[in-house]
Design goal:
Blueprint (H helix, E strand, L loop, with lengths): L1 H13 L2 E6 L4 H4 L9 H8 L4 E2 L6 E11 L6 E12 L6 E8 L16 H4 L2 H13 L1
Antiparallel strand pairs: 1-3, 2-3, 3-4, 4-5
């Protein structure tokens, strides 16, 4: 009996849970967004608020959807990703272009192992304490 219970736990821990995050864009609604015709308000009514806007370009909207699978052995397995990029013409406020990216368009990055030195790590307790006392004396 204990072997059956242990087997059930092992099998249950292998079960995958898939979570979808972001906005699911229906193809029928996306087909109604027409470059040169649709305005920002049209896009808001059809697709909802964007996931984010361009940092330096508020004429670019991003709609992002990701599906991630989770098991006890693979806690973050990206199943799919869709990024819809909508650019607006700043002069007319209408859609200038639509561009879609998928998981296949993504790039894998390897973090750089160099470490940026910070003064907080180089200072000892006495240095930090004396620095704080100096701030109180001023």
């Amino acid at each position: 009996m204990p072997l059956m219970v242990a087997s059930a736990f092992v099998i249950a821990s292998c079960a995958e849970t898939v979570n979808t995050r972001g906005q699911i864009i229906l193809p029928s609604r996306l087909a109604q967004v027409q470059p040169g015709v649709s305005t920002r308000d049209d896009v808001l009514n059809l697709l909802g608020s964007p996931s984010t806007q361009g940092t330096l370009n508020d004429n670019r909207w991003y709609y992002i959807t990701s599906s991630v699978g989770t098991t006890s052995f693979t806690p973050h397995d990206l199943k799919s990703r869709q990024v819809l990029i909508i650019d607006f013409d700043p002069a007319t406020g209408t859609v200038a272009s639509l561009n879609q990216k998928t998981k296949a368009d993504g790039k894998s990055l390897t973090p750089d192992e160099d470490v940026t030195e910070t003064h907080g790590q180089a200072m000892g307790i006495v240095d930090q304490f004396m620095g704080n006392l100096g701030g109180l004396v001023k």
